[in-house]
Structure formats: structure tokens, C-alpha cells
Design brief:
By secondary structure, the protein is mostly beta strands. Strands 1, 2, 3, 4, 5, 6 and 7 form a 7-stranded mixed β-sheet that branches. A hairpin with a 6-residue loop joins strand 4 and strand 5. The longest helix is centred in the middle third of the chain and has 13 residues.
């Protein structure tokens, strides 16, 4: 599948941060759940940036959490139409937190979003991997690739 003439190809990373059998997720504070859904940290790969570096950067920017990559889970294409005329080439990674003492829930956000929009706030929390089917917009595409020992 290619992006085609009516879709712009955008390189992205998606982070599955796993800790004690739980997955890090977030929901937007000011956007209804039926609009933004339940998400995992994700974002664009900067020009010249390696996907593994991009995913660690995105998790830190979006959650304030330092992490390290455990494994590369592969690449999937996701057609964003009709929301945007884009095809996302998504590089999925499993990560672990650098710290062992972690809050159950915390607030985070972006003061200056890359899309130029308004300040965004969201609530980060851990959910059991067995409940990760609630992820929106194809973010759950590689959940089955998480190592069984980590589930």
C-alpha cells in the first residue's frame, strides 16, 4: 500500500511503555473521549532522526517520563483519511520506564503543540495490557508483538 496521490506520507513513532504488565495511556482533558479516544505516546519523526530516538523523545515530551527502548515491534501503515489527507508510516516500539517508582496517574501536556494549536493537557495512567483494546485510531496494531513475559 502506498500513500497515493491524494495522501501525504508522514513518518511517525508509537510507544508502548510497559511496566509490571500495565500499558501507559492517556486521555485528553479538554477533548471528549469520543473525539480523541484513549491514546499512547506517539508523534512525528524529525528530519534526520532515527525512529528509536524519536520514540524516546516523544514519550519524554508527552509524559515527562524517561524511557528506554526494549524492542522494535515493526512498521504499519495507517490511513488517516477522512480526518486528514495523510498516510502514517508508524514505527512501533516497546519501551520501559527508566525509573521504578512511578505514579498511578499524572497530568501532562504540550504548551506549544507542533501543529501550532492551543495548549493541550491530558491525564496519563496505567491500564492492564488485557484492556489495551480500548486504544483508538489503530494505535493497538502491534500490541500482540509485546513479549509474553511482559504481559
Amino acid at each position: 500500500m502506498s500513500a497515493g496521490p491524494d495522501r501525504r506520507l508522514v513518518r511517525k513513532v508509537v510507544a508502548y511503555v510497559v511496566h509490571d504488565g500495565d500499558l501507559l495511556v492517556f486521555t485528553h482533558d479538554d477533548v471528549p473521549l469520543d473525539v480523541a479516544g484513549v491514546q499512547v505516546p506517539a508523534g512525528s519523526i524529525e528530519p534526520g532522526e532515527e525512529p528509536g530516538a524519536a520514540v524516546v523523545r516523544e514519550v519524554l515530551e508527552e509524559t515527562g517520563m524517561a524511557t528506554r527502548v526494549i524492542r522494535d515491534l515493526g512498521v504499519e501503515l495507517y490511513d488517516v483519511w477522512p480526518s486528514k489527507p495523510e498516510m502514517h508510516e508508524r514505527h512501533f516500539f516497546q519501551l520501559e520506564p527508566a525509573e521504578h517508582s512511578l505514579p498511578e496517574r499524572w497530568s501532562s501536556g504540550e504548551e506549544d503543540p507542533s501543529d501550532g494549536g492551543q495548549t493541550q493537557r491530558w491525564t496519563c495512567r496505567w491500564i492492564p495490557l488485557e484492556q489495551a483494546h480500548v486504544l483508538c485510531a489503530g494505535f493497538g496494531a502491534k500490541l500482540g508483538a509485546i513479549a509474553p513475559a511482559d504481559r
